[in-house]
Amino acid sequence: MLTVPALCWLCRMPLAVSRWGICSCCYTTLPAPPPCCPVCGLPAVVTTLPCGRCLRKSPPWQRLLYVTDYCPPLSTLVQGLKFYRQTALAQPLARLILLRMRQAQQESAFPLPDLIISVPLHRRRAWRRGFNQSALLAKPLARWLGCRYEARALKRVRNTPVQHHLSARLRKKNLRAAFRLELPVRDLHIVIVDDVVTTGSTVGEIAKLLHRHGAATVQVWCLCRTL
After folding, report:
1. How many whole angstroms separate alpha carbon 222 and alpha carbon 65?
2. What is d(CA 45, CA 38) in angstroms, rounded to the nearest whole number?
3. Buried (b) or exposed (e) across 159-196, using 16+ Cβ within 10 A?
4. Is 92 helix (H, G, I), strand (E, B) or coil?
5. Which terminus of the chain is more exposed, N or C, with fewer CB under 10 A?
6. What is the pTM for the complete model shown?
7. 117 pairs with which residues across the strands?
8. Cα 213 to the center of its chain, rounded Å
9. Helices (H), the chain
């Protein structure tokens, strides 16, 4: 039987490796993020040391890694995965995070994760959506890196309002006591995977929880960081 070649999600040309999802030409043309602080991920002059913002008040995680700013074409693919049930996008998008991690690892060493966790949805929202997009990104990353992925490591115990409608101050208030840790994490290097980080309130609340329970380091890996 003849096989139909998979097409790149961006340029619609046939792929050499179908599971990649995005061809090498389109990958190289993705908008590169500006020079950023390795801790908060916001624009900075020096990319190897914490920026002035982090020196004054460091975020509750140790490193934030992302592919690019929340802009086309990647933002369009993220919306396709998240809102239009295009779950076939999950593995190609997870591969972009992996490639970005490999690149960042060459620039400066940081511990590989013992455990990868995803930002959980409340059970009602998960039921309505039918899947957790962060979990779909985290699973292949854990498999490729040969580390643990625990889908039930975190539980969202409060059904909070949708974050993107709220201000930064209300986002922080909205997430207080919203998560519960379901397994021991003492002395583990942990990566939190999410699709988009905006103010960092969600991943920040999770990072605080992990550190309170003895996590050695916490990193945040995402597709897009709103700059």
Report:
1. 6
2. 11
3. ebeeeeebeeeebbebbeebbebeeebeebbbbbbbbb
4. helix
5. N
6. 0.91
7. 192
8. 21
9. 24-28, 52-56, 74-83, 90-107, 123-129, 133-145, 168-174, 201-212
